[in-house]
Amino acid sequence: MLSGNTVKYIQSLTHKKFRDQYRRFIAETPKVVEEFLSAGYEVDSIYATEEWMITKKEKATDDNGNWIAVRDFELKKISQLKTPREVVGVFHIPDLALPGNLDGKITLALDDIQDPGNVGTIIRIADWFNIQHILCSLHTAQAYSPKVVQATMGSLAHVKMHYVDLKDFLSKSKLPLYATSLQGDSVFETGTIDEGILIIGNEGKGISSELLSLAGNHLTIPRLGRAESLNAAMATGIILSHIVKV
User: Out of 43, 137, 156, 169, which residue is the most buried by the measure of CB atoms under 10 Å away?
Assistant: First the structure.
């Protein structure tokens, strides 16, 4: 039986303040939880149905975290989903050092992307294209919020997220900087890119003028119809599909 304090603790992790305080985050559904387990994320605790626990008996025995069998009604108390699915995991937020060398690869930089769904989808797209690092402005939605974690469908386990002063970081970088801009060169004619940092702007305001001025290359997706703009995650996927070497 889950205690009231346990339920309160897990529910508190839906708030950034307590995620920062405890350095923990929530992951849900077998797919997502299993991705973090496979990636070696440190377990705080796992709460799951007995049926799911049986399938993971060996892992539960080997792991140092607490694996606790719960009933469906208890799972509902700690789940953030409308329909809980078998398991809720609490994991340690990793302490990641800033990447020292981004040469020879493409890195993403998110400039105040505030929608959790967009950030989660961008992480999933980055994982698809084997983008290993994402630099985030300090006002970008936190990667370990429940909505972002769920939107990544487990891809957060494979992509390293770094929250930095983007202007300071990019101004010191010697890599080519690419900004998404309506006035940029057509991504269809750019060709593949060996290395560089691709900056993705805020959903409503785009990339800040400060970061635009730092970027020596501006890219755009030519508009053929009448849509005013593209979703940030969708635009990221289209651009990466043209610049990443296969």
Answer: 156
Residue bearing tokens 């937020």: 93
CB 153 within 8 A of CB 124: yes
225 HSE (CA, 13 A, CB side): 4
Q: In whole angstroms, how far apart are CA 159 and each of 92, 156, 196? A: 15, 5, 17
- Count other Cβ atoms within 10 Å, centred on residue 111: 26
**3-state DSSP assignment of residue 37:** helix
Secondary structure (3-state) at 172: helix
Kindly report, residue by residue over 38-79, the tens digit of the pLDDT: 999 999 999 999 899 888 766 655 565 688 999 999 999 999
Q: What is the DSSP letter of 141?
A: P
The one-letter amino acid code at 62 reads: D
Cα–Cα distance for residue pair 75/39, rounded to 1 Å: 24
State pLDDT tens for residues 152-196: 999 999 999 999 999 999 999 999 999 998 888 999 998 999 999
